[in-house]
Design a protein that fits this description.
By secondary structure, the chain is of the alpha/beta class. The chain has helices at 31-43, 57-67, 91-94, 114-125, 141-152, 167-175, 211-216, 231-238, 246-262, 268-278, and strands at residues 19-24, 47-52, 71-74, 88-89, 101-105, 108-112, 134-137, 158-161, 178-180, 190-193, 219-222, 242-244.
Length: 280
């Protein structure tokens, strides 16, 4: 039954016509598998999704092409290494030299980055004006997706906050933003956390920004998905800021993948059901 108690459609029996989708990750999780398979069940689609890891990336990508596997989510450490093995690179992946989604169209493999697409969609959905000044904390792979999405959405006034004296300035210079190693007393209307601060584990209780900066911000975006309500977002919500969570990001990027794999757009209720199921 669905999360709301509704009866699920009968799933077509797995057979020769079943379409396979998959993921490749150094350390596979279960959110993607549960999210996609739940949507297949809700929609009665003859698809199945399975997570894998590999020590032979070229062989795995060759298998996608040879076996007609429809789609593949790509996680660390394969997001950049996979690019030379593909036929087409979508602008979303080209903008950050990183692929997290492969779509197989009759043996032609196209690479996308749905993290980038999710951020672009969330900026538009919440009508965040491109003139909004921002502080973004972080300089890793996801930071690159967020910074590129901001740049391509027309944002020009922003600062990358990163102690890494190599990655931080390089990220800022590539996309035309400022860089600083320390926050000091900086504030901005839009605060973005793209670090592990607030993530389940040793950093669970760490605030991504000083309390004064959070109290004065209007919009808080945190890409940490577990937990979905981080200390940063809790503090920002208490101050009346618009909050966008990592859960919002991960669900939207998964939905972007699902639509590309199946050609079907689920209803908002079905997406909410699948997201809730994937987190159980």
């Amino acid at each position: 039954m669905g999360i709301g108690g509704e009866t699920l459609p009968d799933r077509p029996p797995i057979g020769r016509d079943t379409t396979l989708c998959m993921s490749l990750a150094g350390r596979p999780g279960h959110f993607g598998s549960r999210f996609h398979n739940r949507l297949y069940a809700l929609l009665g689609l003859d698809y199945i999704y399975k997570a894998f890891s590999t020590n032979d990336l070229a062989g795995a990508i060759g298998g996608i092409r040879a076996l007609g596997i429809r789609g593949c989510a790509v996680s660390m450490p394969f997001k950049e290494a996979v690019i030379p093995l593909l036929d087409v690179l979508d602008p979303s992946a080209r903008a950050i030299d990183s692929v997290n989604t492969i779509v197989n169209d009759g043996g032609t493999l196209s690479g996308f980055n749905t993290d980038y697409l999710a951020i672009r969609t969330l900026l538009a959905r919440h009508r965040i004006a491109s003139g909004t000044r921002f502080l973004l904390r972080g300089s890793g792979g996801m930071a690159k997706a967020v910074v590129a999405a901001l740049r391509d959405a027309g944002f020009r006034d922003g600062t990358i906050v990163a102690r890494n004296a190599g990655a931080g300035p390089a990220l800022a210079a590539r996309y035309g933003f400022a860089w600083t190693a320390d926050l000091e007393a900086r504030t901005a209307p839009l605060l973005i956390n793209v670090t592990p601060m607030g993530m389940e584990g040793p950093d669970a209780d760490v605030l991504a920004f000083p309390e004064a900066a959070i109290a004065s911000c209007a919009i808080a975006l945190d890409v940490v998905a577990l937990p979905s309500e981080t200390p940063f977002l809790t503090a920002a919500r208490r101050s009346g800021a618009l909050c966008i969570s990592g859960h919002d990001v991960v669900v939207l990027q998964g939905l972007e993948q699902f639509i590309r794999y199946t050609g079907v757009t689920p209803s908002p209720a079905q997406v909410a059901d699948a997201a809730a199921y994937a987190r159980t």
